[in-house]
Amino acid sequence: MIDQRKTASYMQILVLIGAALLCGCQSEAPCGGAECVEDTYAYLADGECELQAKVYLPPGEEPKPAILWIHPGGLITGGRDWIDAHQLAMYLEAGYAVVAIDHRLAPEYKLETIVADVVAAYVWLVSEGPTRFNVDPDRVAIVGHSAGGYLALLAGLRLDPPPKALVAFYGYGDLTGEWATKPSTSYNQRAEITQEEADRALGGAGKDCVPTSSALEGRFDYYVYARQQGTWPLEVSGHDPVTEAAWFRAFEPVQNVTPAYPPTMLLHGRADTDVPFSAAERMAAALEEHGVVYEFVSREGWNHVFDQIEADSPDVQTALRQVLAFLEGNVK
Asked: 222 pLDDT exceeds 90?
């Protein structure tokens, strides 16, 4: 028998998670209220597809260290404007240029294309950034949240030269664990989303390169549907994680860590009902095994998107200061 109190708790948490992921937490104040110059650039043109990056520059004429920021959204929704206003201001006030990127989205586009977009954004940043907006190509970190955290961890394997540091908020290093391939207990506590409803949630986007902001809002339902069914890895990759597990190996950071992997910071709550804490533990163990410099920040009560849900809590504020210290030590 389902514990009704537990069900209600799951539902409240999922509503908060969905709202945090979908809010586009950018404030109306430019640059999150910090002083900066803000501009938008196309970093990749692929046929009719143009992918954009929003660049925020703190004041000063000296070359800036940079953060390449990758949004959350389960690889299915999200965009460059989803960066949290307070965290954006925090990075700017610490002297970082922040480059928030779009990438193409599943299921219309698959994992290989999404990863290639992230690589293209990094190559563009380190090659074009010094002349276009005065960033130091030798001082670049990648910060990502949830699916963006996964892409940040994967970028640590794919980029040359490698970034100076990686920061993954509630990310993951695998796509073939049971947490991803089995129906999600937490997402099945909410009303079932049918295949028809899931398809409708995509908004008939077809092969639109990047959906509009209004179209992004409904796409979270497609992610929920895929997690309810246990088909999410298949939806985002086009490959079956059970029968084609070998295909996924190249896309699982936890299986590919070497001593050359960049310094990494993991932030993950033990109460995460979307990406289990064990996923972060496995990634931390791989970093430890190979002697990679890393920090692992967690709290007992943190759920997914804890930095949004509990933004004003002392624990979250402490964690964000730890992020800045980690970046200071490895990037600046």
From this structure: yes
